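Reopening this one. Same input as before:
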Amino acid sequence: MDKSALIEKVVEKLQKEVAELEANVASIHEAAVDAPNAMQSHSDTTKFQMNALKDDIEKQLSAKNKELEILERFEIAPVPSSKEVGSGSVIKIRDGERELNYFFLEGGSGIQIEDESGNPIIVVGENSPMGKILAGKKVGDNIVAKFGSKERSIDIIEIW
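Same output, byte for byte:
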């Protein structure tokens, strides 16, 4: 599996998300400027709501830009012989009847990409719920994880 190609796909997807967020910030800023202010209508809170929404999107934008910075510095290391899940690992799991692939990256964002064969891979980071479950696990490990009120049994099948 070509991890460099996977990282390129993650970067491309993040760059698209950044462009969309930047466009959203610009349009919301414009709408906030055009919204009536308190002097025009005492009951209208549109300007305040638009600015709060813009602030929220700017936080998302900042997080995505940090992820891009991390990926620009990321160096792919060979998987250790212990095959323990760590940054840069691609992990195949069995979750009940399904087999899923995860790409464990520092600052991973939960986005989905595809490998060279078109199989979906979900990018997770060490602070995500699934990242916390997978970190440090080895092939053959069985994890019973709780998601909300449901327990799921997850088997680690393969690590690259």
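So the earlier flakiness isn't reproducible anymore. For the record, The beta strands are 89-95, 98-104, 109-114, 120-124, 142-147, 150-159.
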